[in-house]
Amino acid sequence: MLASTLFFGLMAITIRFASRTLPTFEIAFFRNAVGLLVLMPLLLRSRASMRTTQLPKYLLRSAIGIGSMLCSFWAIGHLPLSQAVSLSYSTPLFVTIAAVLWLGEIVRRRRWTAVLLGFVGVLVIVRPGTSDFTHGSLIALAAAVLSAIVAIQIKQLSRVDAPDTIVFYTYLFWVPLSFVPALFVWQWPQPMAWLWLVLTGICGTGGQLLWTRALKIGDVSALTPISFMQLPVVSVAGMLLFNEKIDRYTVTGALIIFAANAYIAQREAQLARRSQTSAPVGASRPTE
Predict the structure, then answer these.
(1) CA–CA dist 157, 161 (Å, integer)
(2) What stretches pass through the bilayer (predicted)?
């Protein structure tokens, strides 16, 4: 998880460098194209089944995922890195709401309290109604909302298909879906921009692979705090490489969101262990 976090932090830095000369749509396309090239040997070696009966669901999942990616990349390219990354941590809060509306999960008082606390952190960062408020922060929040919807869709797809199958079809749809908008703003990258684009694809794909494997072998409640190491990494990079100031409101809001997410992850892990030891097979459980 720590390696995954560092990969994602490096991806944010390379996106910022690429955004100096290239539009967001084009950066997203190259991130996906390079990612697919990196993944193909791994997927072929794993001999994962590419058969699926859920192609329409994959298309919808990929389209929403592209929307999330474009919003996220734009935020990284135009907002202070620390603010863009901090707002991305609100995704688990929106996942809770989406799980209630989409999957019919029951969320009880303590988890709702944690979610509300997390949104207080979001408000501290965004600061609506003040001179520091920017509409760009709403784009970063839109990325978090769309990412939460994608998380629910992946949960549904994983009930039928293997993880490698999900990854394969996601990238297979992502490449053409991101290529179409890129055509309208296309400009050939300069030599240094090629380096940032390739590194963006490698870091993003490497981060995803490490993240999924960390969640497979580790406890979510223990891994979630590690993922927040991305914030100091990008904050220091923003200060040293892009002359950005570390905003105390962003740090305060990020800490509040971190506390809320850590509690939610801990409760989920406790309830999962409890249901495995006491609940009958196939029984549903409420989420507190």
Answers:
(1) 6
(2) 28-46, 58-77, 83-103, 112-130, 136-154, 166-186, 192-211, 223-242, 248-265
Query: Considering the entire predicted model, what is its pTM?
Result: 0.87
Instruction: Write b or e for each residue in 72-107: b if 16 or more Cβ atoms lie within 10 A of its Cβ, otherwise e.
Output: bbbbbbebbbbbbbbbbbbbbbbbbebbeeeeebeb
- The dihedral region occupied by 85, where left means phi > 0, alpha psi between -120 and 50, and beta the remainder, is alpha
Q: Which DSSP letter does residue 287 get? A: B
Tokens 């309830």 correspond to 271
Per-residue model confidence as pLDDT tens digits over 92-123: 889 888 888 887 877 888 889 999 999 999 99
pLDDT digits (tens, 9 = 90+) for 39-89: 888 777 766 667 788 899 999 999 999 999 999 999 999 999 999 999 999
**Measured distance CA(20)–CA(15) in Å, rounded:** 9
- Residue 252 buriedness (CB in 10 A; 0-12 / 13-18 / 19+): middle
pLDDT in tens, 250-269: 999 999 998 988 888 877 77
Six-digit token string for 60: 């919808």
* Side chain identity at residue 192, one-letter code: M
3-state secondary structure of 285: coil
Name, in order, each residue with C-beta under 8 angstroms of 216's C-beta and a sequence gap of 6 or more: none
33 CB-near residues (< 8 Å, 6+ apart): 175, 179, 201
